[in-house]
Amino acid sequence: MTRGTDNDLIRPLLALLRGELPAGEARELRARLRHEPELAAEYQRLERTWSNLELPPAAPAPPGFTGRIMARVRSERAAGSLSWAAAPGWVRATAAASLVAGALLGIGVGRSWPAAEPALTPEGAIAGLKVSSGEDLSLVKGYWNLLEETMTTGGETETRQ
After folding, report:
1. CB–CB of 148/157 below 8 Å?
2. pLDDT tens, 106-127?
3. Closest Cα to residue 43, out of 2, 11, 88?
4. Region for residue 155 given its phi and psi (left: phi exceeds 0; alpha: psi -120 to 50; beta: otherwise)
């Protein structure tokens, strides 16, 4: 391959390697790779190089970075610049509008929400445990009955007591 040919083919080979070539052009270039050994060797060299590329490791924060940031936050807090008064007007207006909208929404939902049912008294809870036959159930017996119903498979009941 000559130097001019290298420059003309490197871009399409790299585009093929990255999967950026349109389907028709990719087919044509792959056909050329099968018939031209020099071009195929160049593609293989680029492929090996591409597969060995790695991002450099992340650089650690410079020494003292955290301390400098915290010192600046403390100085701005002491100077009073971290307050609502220092916030731009649009930020304060947006916060106020959100607060009013939330309050109105809460009031509207509260009015349309159905009234809560009164809490059960101990007598009402015990009455709720009675079966239609009039039998009083204890919590333990009710639990085991529920467990038996849940574990029923194919008409058979497993009992664990």
Report:
1. yes
2. 888 777 766 666 665 655 555 5
3. 11
4. left
Cα–Cα distance, 43 to 128 (Å, whole number): 80
Tell which residue, 43, 34, 51, has the closest CA to residue 14. Answer: 43
Structure token pair of residue 19 = 């999967």
* Backbone phi and psi for residue 17, each to the nearest 5 degrees, phi listed first: -60, -40
3-state secondary structure 98-156: HHHHHHHHHHHHHHHCCCCCCCCCHHHHHHHCCCCCCCCCCHHHHHHHHHHHHCCECCE
Residue 58, Ramachandran bin (φ over 0: left; ψ between -120 and 50: alpha; else beta): beta
CA 117 to chain centre: 38
Whether pTM > 0.70 for this model: the answer is no
Please report, for the chain, the start and end positions of each structural domain, with discontinuous segments joined by +. Answer: 7-51, 125-161
Residue keyed to tokens 């992340």: 58
